[in-house]
C-alpha cells in the first residue's frame, strides 16, 4: 500500500506507530464526539461530520497522514484518497523562469500558497488573508468576538430569588449515606473494642520525684576528674548596699574617672548609691544583663585550674646568718676628709696604713694622715688626676699619679725618713744603658719646683692614661690607655731600669682595667666582657674569664689570689673562683645602677661594691654563702677601697662628690678606742650624722680645711 | 636509629582537645543546638595549658573543648530529640505553607518534647552536689518569676518559676535556715544554710523590668529549663526530708481561716491556692504531724579526733544558731502597705515572727492593724498620722540589720523619720589590714555585749591623735637636728673649739627595730631572682591594699569632720 514501506528500513517501525497513534486519536475524537452530552451537537454530527472539518490531521483528501511529503517525491502520485485510489500529482511544467515570471506578473502571487498534500497552488481569499493577519497580530480569529466584554459576576453577594440551577436535589441528599454509616460503624466498633483511644491531654506540668533515691556517693564518672566546678557569684561588699557608709560613695573626681573608664577596666561594675529609705530604691537597670552575663560565663568561658601561690612572704626571704655575727665590718661613718674642691677620682692607702693619697679633678693630689684626717701635703699637677696608686712594697715610698698622658712617680716624703731617702737613692742610682732603645714612653726626671714637691719621674705616654697599677714587689707599674683600635693599650714599666714594654701585640678589645696577681706571675686584663689572665713568665694566655655582663667597669683580686670580683655597668657583680671555672661562681645584683668600684678586704672575707645609685654595699662572702652586711648611701661614688692594715680597724673609704672622703669604721672598735672623733660638716646629711653620733661622742668643731 | 618517627601533634595535648567548630561538626549539630546541648549537659570550654601546642602551632584565638567531653555528648539521647524537633518544625512550616490546618493541628499535638531528669541525675550524682550548684538556679528562677506574662518567654515557664521559688521560700521558712540578708542596689541577697551548704541567691526588687535588647533570651530560657528541673527535684527532696507534703499544702487551720473570708475578689479559683502559698503567712502540712516532738534536744558526741575544746566550740556555735533562729520569736509584726511585703514576710517568718498586713494589700493576712498585741509596725514613710502607743514603729532596715547582727538592735535608730544608720554587707569578712568601717566596729562591740557610749568614742579619737603626735615628734627630732646643723654652720667661727658633746638618749627599741629592718632589707637584697619576683608581687599587693584602706579611713575622717562642723554650725544658728 505504501511505496516506502519496502524501500527504507529505518522507518517501518516508527511509521506503523504513528499510524496507530493517528488512528487512535481519531477514534478518541469520535468517542468524544459521540459521548458529548449535548443533544444539539449530536444532531449536527448526524449530518456529515467530515464536511466542514478543517482539522489538519484529518485531511480527508489525502490519506497518507502526517508524513514528510518528500517520500512521494519520486512517484507520480502524491497519496491516496478515501477510496484508496492514487491521487496523481498535478502536471507541473513550471520551471524557475516561469516561477519568476509568475511572481512578476501575477498580482495574486503573494496570496498563493502551495499545498503540499495535494500538490496544488491555492489562492487565498481576502477573508483568509485577513484571518492570517489577525492571527499574526495575536488577535482572535473571529472578528465579532469581543474580548473585553463586561464581566457578569455570576456568583455575587446578592442573593437571587431563583436557584442557579433548576435541578432538583439528589435523592442521596435525603437518605443517610450507607458508606458513611459503614465507616462510623467501624469506628464505633473500634472504640468499643478499645482499638481507638481518645487523645490524652498533654502533660504540661513537669513531674517531680525523688531523683536521688538511689544515690551512690562513690559514683563519680571518669570524666568528672577533669571537672572544674563553676566559681560561685561574688558576694557583695559594703559598697553595694542601698545605704552604704559614706566613705564608700565615690567623690566627683572618682565618679568622673569611673565614667571615663572602659566598662571592662572598672573596678566596680556599678556606681555606689545612697538612698535615704528603702522605698526610694529603684530597680537595677542592668539586672537582666548581669544575669545573662553570668549565663554566658557558665557555658562559654573556658575554665582552667590555676594554682594560687599561697606563700608567706617572710618564708621567701633567705635565712642568712645575722650580720651582727659576721662582724667585724664597717658600720659607722667616722671620718671625713675635706679639702678637694672637685670630684675625687681615685684614692690609695700606703702599705704602712698611715697615709692616704687622693687624686681629684681639681688637678691636685693630696696626702692625708688616715687617723687624724689631716692633709699633710697638696701637690698640684698639670691636669685632672685619673688614678693614684701607692707602691705596695713597704720598703719603697713611691706613689704613681696619672693625669692626662703623664704618669708621675712621687716620693711623698712622709713617714720613715730612711725609707724616703732610700727610695730617692733607688731612683737616682739609675745609669743610662749604653745602647738607648727607642721607647714609646719617655722617661724624664723633673727639675725645680716639681723636684722639690717630690716628683721623681715623669713618664709621658702617647695617649691618656686611665689607670695605674703596681706589681706587688713594687718594681713594675702597669698603665692602661684605653683605646679601641690600637694594640698599644697596656704598658708595663720597670722603674728600676726605666724600661717600658708593651706586652700585647694584638688588640683584643678596649681594656677597662688591669691588675697584677698578688702572689703568682699573672697579669689580669679586663676588657669589655672578659677578664684575661696572662702568665707573664710563659708569656701566654692562661685563662679567659667570662663575666656574663655587658661592660666591666672595675675589677679586684683577692689577696689570696684565688678569687676575682668584677663590677659592671649593668649593675652586676661577678665573683670568679679561679680554681673552679671561667664562669662566675656567683653573680650578685644588689645595686640598682652601674657599679663604679669594687674592693676586697685583705684579711676578712669582705668585699665592697660602690655604685651610681649612691650606695656602697659591703658583703661578707664565704664559699657557702654570701651575706650582705652593710649598706650605706652617699652622694656619688667613683672609687672605693678597703683599709685593712690594722687589725682593729676595718674601714672602707668611699670618696664622694665635692671632695669628701667618708670613712666607715667597724662597730666594735668603740671598745678599743674608747672615743670616736667625728668631724661633722655642713654638707653631710642629718641621717649620716645620726649614724655617726653615739652616746659617748665628743663633738669636735673644726674649721674648713 | 630504629623506631618510627614521631609526628607532631599526633599525641599528647593536641589530641586531647577539640575546637568548637570541629566538635560541632563531629556531633553534626547546628550552632544553636550545640549551644543548647552544652548548657544542658554542663559542658564548658577548657583552657589548655599550652595553647599553641593544642592549636597545632597556630596562635589564632580558638575555643577548645575536651575531646572526652565531646565524645560523651555523642551518646546523649537528647541529641536525637533535637533532630526530631528540627524535623517537626520543618513539617509544621510546610503544613502552614500549604495551608493544611488539620495537618498542622495534628503535628502540633504530637510536638516532640524531652525531659532533663537523666541529665540532672548525671550532672549531680549526689543530692549534695545538686545543692551546691543551686545558687544560680535560684537567682534565675526568682528573676523569671518577676517577668511579665507577655512576650519574652512562655507563660508556663514563668508560672513554673514562680511556683518553684515560692516552694523554696516556704521550705526555708519551715526549716528556719535563713542566715543573712542584704539590701543592695541590685536587689535583695539572701543567704541560707541547707544541709550544711551555704546557698546565696539574689531577688530583684518588685519592679517591671526594662527589657534590654542586647540579651539573648533563648540562652536564658535554656538555662531556665535546666534550672527549673533541677530546682523542682531539689524541692521535692527537701520537702521529703522535712516530712512535708509535696506539692506544698497549707496547714488545715490556716486554710479554714482563709476560706472563711471572702477571697473571691483576689484571685480566680485556680490561682487562689498559689496566691495563698506565696503569701507566706501560713505553715505547711506535714506528712507525719509530730513536728513538735522532734524538737527534743539532740545528744552531742564528739567526732573522731575532736577534743573537748572543739566540741565546746561546736556546741556554742549550735546554740548561737538556735538563738538566731528564734530571733523574732514571740514578736508580732504588722507591715504597712509601702514596704516590700514578700521579702519582709519571708525574713520575719524565717525567724519565728508573726506577720500580717492590710487585708486589701494581699491575700493571707491574719490580723488587723488594730490588734493590740502587735509589737512592731514596719513603716517606710516620713511620718504616720495615727500611731498606737504600745508598739514600735520601725523602718524595714531594722529587720534586716537585726538578722545580720543576730540580735535585736536598739530600735531608736530606726524610728519613723529618723536618718538610718548605714546598712552594711554581712558577707564581708574583714581580714587583718583591711578597712573596717566604724559602724562595723560598733556592731562587733554590741555583739560582744558592750554598751557603746559617746565618751568612749571620743577617747578613741584622742588615742588616735596622740599616735599622730608621736609621729610628729619623730619628724620634729629631725627638724631639730637640721636646725642645729644650720646653727653650727652659721655660728662657726674659724677657730677650733671643743665643746662637750651632749649625750643623746638612745632609743633602744627604736634602734633595735631599725637594725632589724636593715637586716631584713639586706636579706631581701640577697633573694634569688625567682623568689624576688614573687616577693615583690606579694608586697606590691599588700602595699596596695594598705594604701586603699588608708584612703578609705582618710575619706571617712574628712567626712566625719565635715559633718561635725555642719552640726556645730546648725547648733550655733
TrEMBL record, chain A:
Residues 72-330 form the BOP1 N-terminal domain. One of its GO terms (cellular component) is PeBoW complex. Pfam families: BOP1NT, WD40. Residues 48-59 have a biased composition (Acidic residues). Transmembrane segments: none annotated. GO terms for biological process: maturation of 5.8S rRNA from tricistronic rRNA transcript (SSU-rRNA, 5.8S rRNA, LSU-rRNA); maturation of LSU-rRNA from tricistronic rRNA transcript (SSU-rRNA, 5.8S rRNA, LSU-rRNA). One of its GO terms (molecular function) is ribonucleoprotein complex binding. The keyword Repeat applies. InterPro entries: BOP1/Erb1, BOP1_N_dom, WD40/YVTN_repeat-like_dom_sf, WD40_repeat_CS, WD40_repeat_dom_sf, WD40_rpt. PROSITE patterns: WD_REPEATS_1 (PS00678), WD_REPEATS_2 (PS50082), WD_REPEATS_REGION (PS50294). Component of the PeBoW complex, which is required for maturation of 28S and 5.8S ribosomal RNAs and formation of the 60S ribosome. This is Ribosome biogenesis protein BOP1. The lineage of its organism: Eukaryota, Metazoa, Chordata, Craniata, Vertebrata. The gene is BOP1.
